[in-house]
Specification:
The protein is α/β, with parallel strands linked by helices. It contains 7 helices and 6 strands.
Length: 181
């Protein structure tokens, strides 16, 4: 199982309870903290006494890793190793992927707590653009192939959205399935 959450969520009791239980029972869980540097509008500099959220793993006796969340292959390799470890009975892992949220936390977020220059500096490090350049420059993938992949992905995404919008509302039984009290 992979559990995604943001940096702000790692300051809640539910985070600590979940990580603790997973460690106690050696559950096959990979916890991935997407540290985008702002919990809503509060910088991580003001809400953490540690520089890396992954350090919290030490308190639970489980591995913790901090990675560059903007490097696609680093994320892939790190998560793959953690998943393999979990599947072999090695228990949970906490991965902190440091990245950035370009837009505000919500539609009403006016982004007054960060500068346009800060946002632009992170946009310049776009992981999709960087990976695309890597595929072309290092792996020799042609622009034509990448364009076909992008077009196919867009079509699949649109078809999925249409399927969801046109599908029936779930029954109460389906909604309750997999919900435990």
């Amino acid at each position: 199982m992979i559990c995604f959450f943001g940096d702000g969520a790692s300051n809640t009791g539910a985070f600590h309870e979940s990580v603790n239980m997973a460690a106690i029972f050696k559950l096959p869980v990979v916890f991935i903290c997407e540290n985008n540097r702002y919990a809503m509008s509060t910088s991580v500099r003001y809400s953490f006494a540690i520089s890396d959220i992954s350090e919290r793993s030490k308190a639970y006796g489980m591995p913790g890793l901090t990675i560059n969340g903007n490097i696609v292959l680093e994320v892939y390799e790190t998560v793959r190793e953690a998943v393999n470890r979990a599947r072999k009975g090695g228990g949970p892992t906490l991965i902190e992927a440091k990245t950035y949220r370009w837009k505000g936390h919500s539609k009403s977020d006016k982004n007054v707590y960060r500068s346009k220059e800060e946002i632009q500096s992170w946009k310049d490090r776009c992981p999709i653009k960087s990976f695309r350049e890597y595929l072309i420059d290092q792996e020799g993938v042609s622009e034509d192939i990448l364009k076909r992949v992008e077009d196919t992905s867009e079509k699949e995404l649109e078809a999925s959205v249409q399927f969801a919008l046109q599908g029936p509302e779930p029954t109460l039984e389906k909604v309750k399935r997999m919900v435990y009290a």
